[in-house]
Amino acid sequence: MSLFKNVLSNKVLKNNAFRLLHTTSACNKVQAGRYRITPRKDMPLTYEMANPPHEIAHRKSWNSWNTSNLDGGLRSSETAVEDLFIRKFVTGTWHDLFLSEVIIKRQHNIVRIAGIIHRSVSARKIYFLLGYTEELLSFWLQCPVKMELQTEADRKKVIFKYI
């Protein structure tokens, strides 16, 4: 107990102040999550890709809406795994057609999946993939799944900037 009192005293704190400093590297030189600038500035980035890591909570929070992560939520880990599964399944099923990120919105018991796809395939194939994806995900997740897609003819329309 006396050791604890000595640590809390001002005299010990002043003498041992060097031990209380944080010794990790500086946080203002964050490189993770940033795209490297190319010499000719010819790498296209979408809006989601162009946001720096410290802006993710402010600008990209709408990409996945659910309330199970709140205090007292019942399914926080299951929801995270399901969102990962949904994104992998959709990008694999709609191979090279999604131009934007897969946006998952959960409202009560319904899972809504949104995104922008390329208009390079026929409408018949798009409707087949739409029904296929909704039906399989509804069966696996045991809740209604609805896909909300927009099509774009030109891939360059979704480019936000070049780096």
Helix content: 25-40%
CATH superfamily: Cation efflux protein, cytoplasmic domain
Coarse shape:
flat
User: Helical stretch count?
Assistant: 6
What structural class do you assign from the helix and strand content? alpha/beta
Largest sheet data: 4 strands, mixed
Q: Remind me, CATH topology?
A: Alpha-Beta Plaits
- Quote the average pLDDT: 80
The CATH architecture name reads: 2-Layer Sandwich
The tally of domains stands at 1
What order do the helices and strands follow? HHEHHEHEEHEE
What is the radius of gyration computed over CA atoms, rounded to a whole number of angstroms? Answer: 24 Å
Strand content: 15-25%
Concise summary:
By secondary structure, this protein is α/β, with parallel strands linked by helices.
